[in-house]
Design goal:
Keywords: DNA-binding. This is TetR/AcrR family transcriptional regulator. By secondary structure, the protein is mainly alpha-helical. The chain has two domains: 56 residues, Orthogonal Bundle (Arc Repressor Mutant, subunit A); 159 residues, Tetracycline Repressor, domain 2 (Orthogonal Bundle), CATH 1.10.357. The chain is 70% helix and 0% strand. The protein contains ten helices and no strands. Helix 1 crosses helix 2 and helix 8 packs antiparallel against helix 9.
Length: 243
């Protein structure tokens, strides 16, 4: 008759793995941070050598390969981290509690312009392959656009719900159109060695284009938006039905 295993002894392996998990997470973060630093420092489009990564991270190749199954997984994880940094920056700019529609649009588009302008090599790296769990195997930038549009769509849908107007297909199309237009235009501007517009003029123009789309959709739903009124005050006004 087999002797039942002790409940206390069953999770020994799992417990050991759990104890090492924070240490392994820290190592992965060091490795990814090393890749990002080297991408920022190197020439545009250059491949970062594994030897350089291990030296920058202060780890041996064997340690790096224990943390990642190969270079593809490391590159995917790096793109995921870059995408998270990008969206964290944008989430702060999209704070609807601070400012009018115009201010929020200017701040958000300005954040996109500044990130792409300051991190051209990271932006280019996103276009060279997918991120972790990326349904678009072509490049991470396409999925990032979709992710940003989804975050913006949830925000706009929530605001529209306050005044009783939610047309999900229209909101989805509108937000993706604004996000993709902004990213494509900023990318073109950032790659132009002699752009016709300076940074502030570019932000102002793109914010005006975004406002035109938003205003047009609002008018189609019989909503009059004041782009210069604090957004929360505007929503409070719109949420009260006219007598």
């Amino acid at each position: 008759m087999p002797v039942p295993s002790s409940p206390a002894s069953a999770p020994v392996g799992g417990g050991r793995q759990a104890r090492w998990q924070p240490h392994n997470d820290q190592r992965r973060e060091r490795i990814v941070a090393a890749v990002i630093e080297l991408l920022e420092e190197g020439p545009a489009g250059a491949e970062v050598a594994m030897q350089s990564i291990t030296e920058r991270a202060g780890l041996s190749k064997s340690v790096v390969y224990r943390q990642f199954s190969g270079r593809d997984e490391l590159d995917r994880r790096t793109r995921t981290t870059i995408c998270e940094q990008f969206t964290d920056t944008l989430d702060t700019a999209l704070d609807v509690t601070d400012g009018s529609i115009h201010r929020i649009l200017h701040r958000s588009i300005g954040a996109v312009v500044d990130w792409i302008d300051r991190h051209p090599r990271l932006h280019e790296f996103l276009r060279r392959g997918p991120a972790v769990g990326d349904p678009d195997e072509t490049n991470a930038m396409s999925s990032l656009q979709t992710s940003i549009a989804a975050r913006t769509r949830r925000l706009v849908s929530g605001l529209a719900g306050v005044v009783g107007v939610v047309d999900e297909p229209v909101v989805d199309t509108m937000t993706f159109a604004i996000v993709s237009m902004t990213e494509a235009t900023v990318t073109r501007w950032a790659h132009d060695p002699a752009p016709a517009l300076d940074r502030d003029r570019l932000v102002a123009e793109l914010a005006n284009y975004a406002w035109s789309v938003l205003d047009g959709v609002a008018r189609a739903h019989r909503l009059a938006l004041d782009p210069d009124q604090p957004l929360l005050a505007l929503l409070e006004r719109l949420a009260v039905p006219d007598p």
